[in-house]
Amino acid sequence: MTVGSWEPGSDLPTVPSDAVQQALTLTDADHFPAAAPETVQPLQPFMTASESDWHEAIAARNSNDLKQLCRFFTLAEDRWPDWFAGDRNPVIWICRELKQRGDFPDKALTAWIKQNTQNRFLPYGNVLG
Questions:
Q1: Which DSSP category does 73 fall into?
Q2: CB atoms within 10 A of CB 58
Q3: Of the candidates 84, 69, 71, which has an alpha carbon nearest to the alpha carbon of residue 114?
Q4: Is the pLDDT of residue 52 over 90?
Protein backbone atom coordinates (compact mmCIF):
# COMPACT_ATOMS: atom_id res chain seq x y z
CA MET A 1 0.00 0.00 0.00
CA THR A 2 1.28 3.47 -0.90
CA VAL A 3 0.51 6.59 1.04
CA GLY A 4 0.93 9.88 -0.82
CA SER A 5 1.27 13.32 0.57
CA TRP A 6 -1.23 16.10 0.07
CA GLU A 7 -0.37 19.75 -0.14
CA PRO A 8 -3.04 22.46 0.16
CA GLY A 9 -3.62 24.12 -3.17
CA SER A 10 -2.06 21.29 -5.13
CA ASP A 11 -5.48 20.27 -6.49
CA LEU A 12 -5.77 23.50 -8.46
CA PRO A 13 -5.76 23.21 -12.22
CA THR A 14 -3.26 25.27 -14.17
CA VAL A 15 -3.56 29.05 -14.12
CA PRO A 16 -5.98 29.93 -16.95
CA SER A 17 -3.99 31.79 -19.62
CA ASP A 18 -7.09 33.42 -21.13
CA ALA A 19 -7.91 35.02 -17.77
CA VAL A 20 -4.28 36.13 -17.39
CA GLN A 21 -4.54 37.75 -20.84
CA GLN A 22 -7.70 39.59 -19.75
CA ALA A 23 -5.98 40.72 -16.55
CA LEU A 24 -3.38 42.52 -18.67
CA THR A 25 -6.08 44.94 -19.80
CA LEU A 26 -6.99 45.91 -16.22
CA THR A 27 -3.90 47.67 -14.91
CA ASP A 28 -4.93 51.33 -14.79
CA ALA A 29 -5.47 52.32 -11.16
CA ASP A 30 -7.77 55.21 -12.13
CA HIS A 31 -10.10 53.01 -14.19
CA PHE A 32 -9.89 49.74 -12.28
CA PRO A 33 -13.37 48.20 -11.93
CA ALA A 34 -15.08 48.13 -8.54
CA ALA A 35 -15.89 44.42 -8.94
CA ALA A 36 -14.02 41.61 -10.67
CA PRO A 37 -15.23 41.10 -14.25
CA GLU A 38 -16.26 37.56 -15.17
CA THR A 39 -13.29 37.35 -17.54
CA VAL A 40 -10.76 37.49 -14.68
CA GLN A 41 -12.81 35.77 -11.97
CA PRO A 42 -11.13 32.40 -12.77
CA LEU A 43 -7.88 33.86 -11.36
CA GLN A 44 -9.31 34.44 -7.88
CA PRO A 45 -8.67 30.88 -6.61
CA PHE A 46 -5.04 31.26 -7.68
CA MET A 47 -4.39 34.35 -5.55
CA THR A 48 -2.91 32.15 -2.83
CA ALA A 49 -1.44 29.47 -5.08
CA SER A 50 2.20 28.54 -4.66
CA GLU A 51 5.05 29.87 -6.75
CA SER A 52 5.35 26.50 -8.50
CA ASP A 53 1.66 26.66 -9.48
CA TRP A 54 2.32 30.04 -11.11
CA HIS A 55 5.67 29.17 -12.69
CA GLU A 56 4.39 28.11 -16.12
CA ALA A 57 2.02 31.07 -16.52
CA ILE A 58 4.70 33.55 -15.45
CA ALA A 59 7.54 32.07 -17.51
CA ALA A 60 5.44 32.28 -20.69
CA ARG A 61 5.08 36.08 -20.46
CA ASN A 62 7.49 38.83 -21.45
CA SER A 63 8.76 41.25 -18.82
CA ASN A 64 6.40 44.08 -19.81
CA ASP A 65 3.40 41.76 -19.41
CA LEU A 66 4.71 40.64 -16.02
CA LYS A 67 4.98 44.26 -14.85
CA GLN A 68 1.38 44.83 -15.93
CA LEU A 69 0.33 41.69 -14.05
CA CYS A 70 2.04 43.07 -10.94
CA ARG A 71 -0.21 46.10 -11.23
CA PHE A 72 -3.30 43.95 -11.78
CA PHE A 73 -2.73 41.67 -8.78
CA THR A 74 -1.80 44.62 -6.56
CA LEU A 75 -5.07 46.38 -7.42
CA ALA A 76 -7.17 43.22 -7.34
CA GLU A 77 -6.03 42.38 -3.82
CA ASP A 78 -6.53 45.92 -2.61
CA ARG A 79 -9.94 46.58 -4.16
CA TRP A 80 -11.85 43.30 -4.50
CA PRO A 81 -13.21 41.23 -1.62
CA ASP A 82 -11.88 37.66 -1.42
CA TRP A 83 -8.76 38.48 -3.44
CA PHE A 84 -6.48 38.99 -0.42
CA ALA A 85 -3.33 36.89 -0.64
CA GLY A 86 -0.85 38.38 1.86
CA ASP A 87 2.57 36.78 1.51
CA ARG A 88 1.31 34.49 -1.28
CA ASN A 89 0.27 37.23 -3.70
CA PRO A 90 1.34 36.42 -7.28
CA VAL A 91 3.11 39.80 -7.39
CA ILE A 92 5.85 38.22 -5.27
CA TRP A 93 6.32 35.31 -7.67
CA ILE A 94 6.28 37.67 -10.66
CA CYS A 95 8.90 39.96 -9.11
CA ARG A 96 11.13 36.95 -8.44
CA GLU A 97 10.88 35.99 -12.10
CA LEU A 98 11.65 39.57 -13.16
CA LYS A 99 14.68 39.55 -10.87
CA GLN A 100 15.98 36.36 -12.50
CA ARG A 101 15.59 38.08 -15.87
CA GLY A 102 17.50 41.13 -14.64
CA ASP A 103 14.40 43.36 -14.85
CA PHE A 104 13.89 43.87 -11.11
CA PRO A 105 14.26 45.74 -8.85
CA ASP A 106 12.43 48.41 -10.80
CA LYS A 107 12.18 51.59 -8.72
CA ALA A 108 9.14 52.93 -10.56
CA LEU A 109 7.23 49.64 -10.32
CA THR A 110 8.13 49.15 -6.66
CA ALA A 111 6.99 52.69 -5.82
CA TRP A 112 3.73 52.14 -7.72
CA ILE A 113 3.06 48.87 -5.89
CA LYS A 114 3.75 50.45 -2.48
CA GLN A 115 1.43 53.36 -3.35
CA ASN A 116 -1.43 51.07 -4.34
CA THR A 117 -1.41 48.39 -1.66
CA GLN A 118 -1.79 47.88 2.05
CA ASN A 119 -0.10 44.47 1.79
CA ARG A 120 3.21 44.86 3.60
CA PHE A 121 4.64 41.79 1.82
CA LEU A 122 4.57 43.36 -1.64
CA PRO A 123 6.64 43.22 -3.74
CA TYR A 124 9.37 41.19 -2.02
CA GLY A 125 7.47 38.61 0.02
CA ASN A 126 7.91 37.53 3.60
CA VAL A 127 11.53 38.10 4.59
CA LEU A 128 11.10 35.75 7.55
CA GLY A 129 9.52 32.92 5.58
A1: H
A2: 19
A3: 71
A4: yes
Dist CA 48 CA 63 (whole Å): 22
Burial tier of 66 (Cβ tally within 10 Å: 0-12, 13-18, 19+): buried
Arithmetic mean of pLDDT over the chain: 92
91 in Cβ contact with 123 (< 8 Å): yes
Task: Kindly give, in sequence order, each residue whose CB lies less than 8 Å from that of residue 71, ignoring residues fewer than 6 positions away.
Answer: 27, 29, 112, 113, 116
Contact 48, 85 (CB under 8 A): yes
Predicted local confidence at residue 13, as pLDDT = 74
Of 44, 50, 51, nearest to 16 (Cα)? Answer: 44
Query: What does DSSP assign to residue 82?
Result: T
Strands (E), the chain: none
pLDDT in tens, 86-126: 999 999 999 999 999 999 999 999 999 999 999 999 999 98
